[in-house]
Amino acid sequence: MKISLNWLKRYIDIDIPVERLSEILTDIGLEVEGVEKFEAVQGGLKGIVIGKVIEAFPHPNADKLSLTKVDIGQEDLLQIVCGAPNVAADQKVLVATIGTTLYSDGEPWKIKKGKIRGELSMGMICAEDELGLGTDHSGIMVLPDDAEIGTPARDYFKFEDDYVFDIGLTPNRSDATSHLGVARDLAAYLKMNENWQGSVRMPEFNQFKAEVVSDKVDVIIEDEVRCPRYSGVCFENVEIKESPEWMQLLLKAVGVRPISNIVDITNFVLHEFGQPLHAFDRKKITGNRVRVKTLNSGTNFLSLDEQDRTLHSEDLMICDDENNPMCIAGVFGGLNSGVTDGTTKIFLESAHFNASSIRKSSTRHLLRTDAAKIFEKGSDPNITVIALKRAGQLFREYASADITSEIIDIYPDTIEPKEILLKYSNVCQHIGNTLDKDEIHDILRAMKMELKPVDEDSLLVKVPTNKADVTREIDLIEEILRIYGFNKVDMPDKLRTTIIHKAYPSKRQVQNMISDNLSSNGFNEMMGISLIESKYYEDADLSKFVFINNTSNIHLDIMRPDALVSGLKSVAHNLNHQQTDLRLYEFGRTYVKGDGFIEDEFLAVYMTGKDSRESWNNQGRSDTDFYGIKEIVDRVFDKVKIDSYSAAEIVEHPWIEFGLNYSNKTSIVDFGKISQSLLSKMGIQQDIYFALFDFSVLFQACTDSSVEVREISRYPRVRRDLALVLDDQVKFSQIRDITRGIDKKLITDIGLFDVYKNEKQLGKGKKSYAVKFIFQDFKKTLKDKEVEKVMKKLISAFERELGAQIRT
Asked: Which of 489, 483, 478 is nearest to 420 (CA)?
């Protein structure tokens, strides 16, 4: 939201530096995200002065040019070559002096001393459009005779610098959607904190009255839930023309393009009061009746931007007597009922609409108008008539309009101010400082709240209807704190907290531990959005997907049902930007429909490209392979101390070409090489290895998050190797499990360092595993007989349980 300082000063007398005012606004909950200096004319007319043409005669070398002598209040006259047909002696004109910057279509160009057709020119006599004062380029701009020579143009036109505050208005601040709302808040703060004695000046509208009551538009509200109040008034003899210059400047300052007096006045009142208005050409209201209702889904509506829009059954519409849609209520007008240059009769609407209804229609049709932004925060239902009167008086003054009806006001159920019980003790407890009762009363009264004592510790507070979100005692305390001042709350000298020790790690601890480990091993964390295009799942059962009405990007229409596709989009983006060696991981959630909505947590890991960084001393880089992703999965398991699981080969998986699954009664992780068909669909041309952890299961399976540190053993390790001839179906994990079952004390490491297949030497369906066993005792040096005793047990178990043959 943009607030103009000059506009604000129409209602409140303040002389506060812009920087300080920004701090105050931020302190009272109106966060200033930026301040911009606004110039009524680009360049601010710097270097432009009033001059008098002393002489004007034809240029000796050009038929269409004139040679002039101009007095700008200096000792010497300026010789200026001028091409305007209307230049003449004794005129008061605007002169751009040497060094002045002018703007043509927003592009700057500087006035320089030079010769034009052989004659010296020391400046430029300007037309309206060259200065940004209008659009006329038929000739130079001639001023009245009383214009004083040498006066800067800026002073002559009385242009005043303006500053525009860009406020990040939060959804709960329905009371501050206008300049008057900000002025009231600012006045309350200044009264309580800077001994300010002024008051907020309300705009006058006491001259509003109907000249002749000759018209009436009937209003029928068919949906009182979506439209609790509807007010309107009729005008005749309206003259459509430009709005006054002061109004245009204020509107331009807040980013509103002036259009005509009628449109500008409705926009002015919107930004002044925070009450949107809409003007209809009354001749286009069929049946002289307005119906406020919803229409059938699929009804067409031609909006002001000449777009055909398909209405939803919940869109509240302003219709004529034949149910023709004239306006999406509170959002956007229709082309066929709007004000044009030929309009002479107007029906002006001022209404209060349901905030939720307006928000849905606004986002559904991608129409984020100023009116919709106010209504969706909750407009004040009790200012519709006041805003009408203010606009009506401006219509009379600047459009010569006659008011030809009494105010129509349909308000079936009056919305009364809320009454909230406030306890003084709760105010002090929540704020943290002790506020006396009188100070609390003064703050509340400064915000125009009515008070009624209840007992020693409480009072009843009547909250104005412009504060739609102040519904509870805690909301009221927040209002008090805003005006009291956050910076006045005492900070304690000491911060006290309770350290809670948990026997098991939290999910956050486990996630951070895994994240630190992956990042320290060359991985980068990514975060994909939870939305994706359903086109990637054309062959899937779409009934399980969570579809959303995404009005900002219609292509992202479902919540992601899996981690892989959204992750591959990020991988593809990196590959397309020449980042071919990738190590990525993501913690996230997936969303599907089952018995209700199902939301699962995951950890996804992606690897592609070379397995190490390119370097002059690293010429042996190889491509990432299956064992690279397996190493990462094993490293995650080691980090969270999961040592009890089973491994199984993945077969007939929809997106894994080959891979493994680790499970512990429940599947923990699938990992392997992504299928070529999916990669081709995503536009990826190199192999991708992927691991998908069910993070909830992973967390349940981890046993401890503590880090163990122990002294490096002073005693030597002993290594023994075995070559085992086994059936092809036997997995290394079976060897590992048998080994751990026999000895957990002395065997500290087991590893597979060679796999050999040769049908002639080993036999059909056989393979040879070369396995290493590392022995170590941390208290003494191992003896050969102790090692051999364990090895004999291992060999016997391998022969018995796996049918192994020992190769020598």
From this structure: 478
**Is residue 330 left, alpha or beta, with left meaning phi > 0 and alpha meaning psi from -120 to 50?**
left
Q: What distance in Å separates the CA atoms of residue 184 and residue 610, rounded to the nearest whole number?
A: 64
Strand segments (E) across 544-581: 558-559
Q: Which residue has the tokens 């004999």?
A: 792
On whether the CB atoms of residues 16 and 183 are closer than 8 A, the answer is no
Give the residue among 406, 18, 64, 474 at the shortest CA–CA distance from 235. 406
The DSSP secondary-structure symbol of 286 reads: G
pTM equals 0.66
Torsion sign (Cα): 647, 653, 658, 659:
negative
Residue 707: per-residue pLDDT: 66
| Contact by Cβ (8 Å): 588, 604 | yes
d(Cα 519, Cα 521) in Å, to the nearest integer?
Answer: 5
Identity of residue 571: V
Regions of the chain with pLDDT less than 50: none
Side chain identity, residue 533: E
Helix (H), strand (E), coil (C) string for 38-102: ECCCCCCCCCEEEEEEEEEEECCCCCCCEEEEEECCCCCCEEEEECCCCCCCCCEEEEECCCCEE
**Euclidean distance between CA atoms 261 and 240, whole angstroms:** 6
- The pLDDT assigned to 380 comes to 94
- Which tokens belong to 782? 């191992």
How confident is the model at residue 168, as a pLDDT?
92
Q: Do 55 and 69 contact (CB within 8 A), yes or no?
A: yes
Q: Is the dihedral of CA 465, 466, 470, 473 positive or negative?
A: negative
**Pairing status of strand 66-71 against strand 48-58:** antiparallel
* CA 150 vs CA 23, 52, 92, 288: distances in Å: 40, 9, 10, 58
The number of CA neighbours under 13 Å toward the Cβ of 384 is 27
- Sequence length of the chain is 808
- 3-state DSSP helix/strand/coil percent for the chain, to nearest 5? 30, 30, 45
Pairwise CA distance, residues 658 & 656, whole Å: 5
* Euclidean distance between CA atoms 420 and 471, whole angstroms: 7
Residue 217 to residue 219: CA distance in whole angstroms: 6
Alpha-carbon span 56 to 622, nearest angstrom? 85
Residue 93 has which token pair? 């004109």
CA 209/CA 404 separation, integer angstroms: 9
Upper half-sphere CA count for residue 323 (Cβ side, 13 Å): 7
Look at residue 808 in the predicted model and tell me its pLDDT. Answer: 67
User: CA-CA distance, 190 to 452, in Å (whole number)?
Assistant: 24
Which pLDDT score, from 0 to 100, does residue 391 have?
A: 95
Closest C-alpha among 471, 469, 461, 463 to residue 437: 461
Q: What is the pLDDT of residue 201?
A: 93
Contact (Cβ atoms closer than 8 angstroms) between residue 707 and residue 505: no
Backbone angles phi, psi at 129, to 5 degrees: -70, -25
DSSP 434-495: ---HHHHHHHHHHTT-EEEEEETTEEEEEE-TT-TT--SHHHHHHHHHHHH-GGGSPPPSS-
Asked whether 350 and 402 are in contact (CB, 8 A), the reply is no
